[in-house]
Design goal:
The protein is built from 13 helices and 20 strands. The protein is α/β, with parallel strands linked by helices and 469 residues long. A hairpin with a 5-residue loop joins strand 11 (256-258) and strand 12 (264-267). Helix 3 (26-45) packs across helix 13 (451-466), helix 8 packs across helix 13 (451-466) and helix 11 (388-400) crosses helix 13.
């Protein structure tokens, strides 16, 4: 064979990943930039799951979606949203095709690692007032010290009244802070493993240092009292109301374009709101209403997807069963014919830490949406492992829509791993595979994604929703 024939054969037989910027024309670049602007606005305003629910429902209502409650009847062509306790939401569009053909599901999560307040958080120590905390999800605890934090959540008073709060994002707001030891005195700390350099009980939020005006030095806890009075004056609560409130600390950094070329986005909470945003946008932008589709933005993924708002809740399968019942179809048949993209991120290759990845099976920024056949750890434990047939079907959907996509796994086989909501959906006899955005510095206070991968993820979800068998 000639060299040309050999190279032609290589081109025919070898897999070559696509690099987005080699594929994009000016039109695609403009669409990518416009989509990224909308996402930056979303990720800046939605620091916790409650804020993401409120934001996405407001967008849904602009597109004609109305609230659904169990017991209501679905109608052909109807657009609905199910608000699950203000912490998770499902958007449902009833298509023209028979419901027995199944539902197109895209399921992501809108919770992220963070620092939650304990039920009795407020205390005073050595001239400072603090909040005690309990971290939520997998974090490197040392990363959360010495950065500006903002307070978000919901106050639930003794009379049952509820008020959402967000303090620390506006430039005029105060911020909050977790201290760390100065390097000059950190000899013992620096000899500890990273895991124990900062302990969970050291993640105390610095709140203030001024005593209650007029309180003499003989008054105990007068700094704590000063803070509590400020909170009471503004929100009308007492210390006991913390027990029924849900309050959390998250980074107050704004989302920013990253790099001289502005090709990336740095923000808190990409995992996994970077998949939630393109999923509901894909549904709202879809003009092909043949398929019945459901977008799930779930809670509690970072701690196992348990509870009434997590993906293991029966609420989401109950919606599918209600659809089946309304249109006189077998719920079992509807589930069996349904398909799901578990929309979650994967670990993008980081040249600074190449030792944890196996290059031929990892994902890279700017190479498009990543399809993850299995997650899990310790020999694929804790994953659904999608069938080859289903992988082939998703390949065809993406290729037919000119989606730039890649495959990936979450690190080397014995390095660690992780899980998603995929197995909880697959356990209901629904073919499911993970599809999402590659991320750098995942679970840190400030994560990084590429604009091109975000845009290709939107295109992937749109293609999946609109695909005709």
């Amino acid at each position: 064979m000639t060299d040309k024939e050999i190279n032609d054969l290589k081109d025919k037989l070898f897999y070559k990943p696509k690099f987005a910027y080699d594929e994009y024309d000016e039109k695609a670049l403009c669409e990518m930039e416009e989509f990224s602007k909308g996402y930056i606005k979303f990720i800046d305003k939605c620091r916790i799951e409650r804020e993401a629910v409120k934001y996405s429902i407001a967008e849904a209502e602009k597109h004609g979606y109305k609230e659904y409650k169990f017991g209501d009847k679905f109608e052909k062509g109807g657009r609905y949203y199910y608000n699950n306790r203000d912490k998770a939401v499902a958007f449902i569009r009833v298509g023209k095709n028979p419901i027995a053909e199944g539902v197109r599901i895209v399921a992501s999560h809108i919770d992220s690692p963070r620092i939650d307040l304990k039920q009795h958080p407020l205390y005073e120590n050595s001239g400072f007032a603090y909040f005690k905390t309990h971290y939520y999800g997998g974090i490197k605890k040392y990363q959360w010290t010495t950065i500006p934090l903002s307070l978000h959540g919901t106050i639930v008073r003794a009379d049952g009244s509820v008020q959402d709060i967000a303090i620390g994002l506006d430039p005029e707001d105060p911020v909050f802070y977790i201290t760390d030891l100065l390097i000059h005195l950190a000899k013992d700390q620096m000899n500890k493993p990273l895991r124990s350099g900062i302990e969970g009980e050291q993640l105390n939020i610095l709140l203030g240092s001024r005593p209650l005006p007029g309180a003499s030095k003989d008054v105990g806890d007068r700094i704590k009292l000063g803070i509590m009075k400020l909170i009471n004056d503004k929100y009308g609560i007492t210390e006991a109301d913390f027990m029924s409130s849900e309050l959390t600390m998250v980074p107050s950094y704004p989302a920013r374009e990253l790099g001289f070329d502005r090709s990336m986005i740095a923000a808190y909470g990409h995992d996994d709101r970077v998949c939630a945003y393109p999923s509901y946008k894909a549904l709202f932008d879809s003009t092909d209403d043949a398929n019945t589709s459901m977008i799930v933005l779930a809670d509690k993924e970072e701690i196992g997807s348990d509870g009434v708002t997590g993906m293991q809740s029966s609420a989401y399968m109950d919606i599918i069963d209600e659809l089946a019942k309304t249109f006189r179809a077998s719920p079992a048949k509807v589930r069996a014919n349904s398909m799901c993209l578990s929309a979650d991120v994967n670990a993008g290759f980081d040249p600074g830490f190449p030792e944890v990845a196996e290059r031929s099976n990892t994902c890279f920024l700017n190479q498009g949406v990543v399809m993850t056949k299995f997650t899990g750890s310790g020999g694929k434990s804790g994953t659904s492992d999608a069938s080859g047939e289903f992988v082939g079907k998703i390949r065809k959907i993406f290729d037919d829509a000119n989606v730039i996509w890649q495959t990936g796994e979450l690190g080397k086989v014995d390095q660690g791993g992780g899980g998603t909501v995929a197995m909880y959906i697959a356990n209901n006899n629904i073919d499911t595979i993970d599809v999402g955005v590659p991320v750098l510095s995942m679970h840190s206070p400030y994560e990084v994604i590429a604009k091109a991968d975000l845009y290709e993820t939107y295109k992937a979800f749109r293609a999946f929703i609109d695909w005709a068998k």
